[in-house]
Amino acid sequence: xxxxxxxxxxxxxxxxxxxxxARQFTQNLADQGEERGLIGPLExxxxxxRHILNCVIVAPLLRPGLVGDVGSGAGLPGVVxxxxxPDVSFVLIEPMERRVAWLNEQVDELGLSNVTVVRAxxxxxxxxxxxxxxxxxxVSAFRKLLPLTAPLVRNGGELVLMKGAAATSExxxxxxxIRKFAVHDIEVLTLGEGVLDxxxxxxxxxxx
Length: 208
Known about the structure:
8 helices; alpha/beta; 7 strands; globular; seven-stranded mixed sheet; 34% helix; Rossmann fold
């Protein structure tokens, strides 16, 4: 097995009293993630820094309410954020059966009573009510992500989308979709400077 990354010092301060759950989820991902096709073989040596902490740094941007994670996959960021924010309700939207099975297993094992898993493509998801916020990580370019996420959000709700270094240029390339889906107050945030080895970039915007 590839060497598993040791827990970075920042983990305890970011997860607080939920660090035990974060450790358990990270270990589960390290033990099963590659064989179940959830993470690539090169990810183990950077599982904490590139994935777990990269996700939890977004937790302070969330508000109590209903938050959707589109294309939840291995549970990054949905499961990590649900661990970090027990005061927020999450719906994890994932179309692939084997990933849905994994997500349900983790929710049960970790006792995450604030999480529901929905097997669906984002465009086909039928939710009980509109989302207050929606997030996604490594799913698609911003212009392609807007048709998948914006319709799920209530009027006045927020997009909190995790992106790479090209976040600003992705916003510039999405002018048509931004108008079509009534996206306002767009900002690109850089999180984790001085705390994480790799910063996290987020496109935050309001749907009106």
